[in-house]
Design goal:
Blueprint: E1 13-17, H1 21-33, E2 38-42, H2 45-54, E3 61-65, H3 73-82, E4 88-93, H4 97-109, E5 113-119, H5 124-131
Parallel strand pairs: 1-2, 1-3, 3-4, 4-5
């Protein structure tokens, strides 16, 4: 029987989808502080779908802004559902909170495992709380 990997031995990957590079860098620093081993970035939903379709294994976590050009977060979550994505999703927005809640309800209705919908920038405490169970 193989021993269970320790936290530092586990490979946990995340994809951040945001058209704001500063937001990505901020989240990447927080995720790396939490021992997320790989953090990749796409600047819109369409680019993220193209990346996901080319990956051998999808990321464990997707953090997605809901307001982006080309393909927004709601359309992106629908694409995740069509691909039967089994990882977890965090939605974020620097804008309208009602749209953020609508996006969360749509993703849940599409059977996506949503860990939360948060205002940008996501604080370290909020991110740790959302991921606490999954990074153990």
């Amino acid at each position: 029987m193989m021993p269970t990997p320790t936290k530092s031995e586990q490979c946990y990957t995340a994809m951040v989808i945001d058209d704001d590079e500063f937001s990505f860098e901020n989240l990447r620093a927080k995720l790396r502080h939490m021992d997320v081993t790989t953090v990749i970035w796409a600047n819109n939903g369409r680019a993220a779908i193209n990346m996901l379709d080319a990956m051998a294994k999808p990321p464990d976590l997707v953090i997605c802004d809901i307001f982006m050009p080309e393909m927004d977060g709601i359309e992106f979550s629908e694409q995740l559902s069509m691909r039967r994505y089994q990882g977890h999703l965090i939605l974020m927005s620097g804008g309208d909170q009602s749209m953020l809640q609508i996006a969360q309800h749509i993703a849940i209705a599409n059977r996506i495992k949503v860990l939360g919908a948060f205002s940008k920038p996501i604080s370290m405490e909020t991110l740790e709380g959302a991921l606490a169970f999954h990074l153990k």
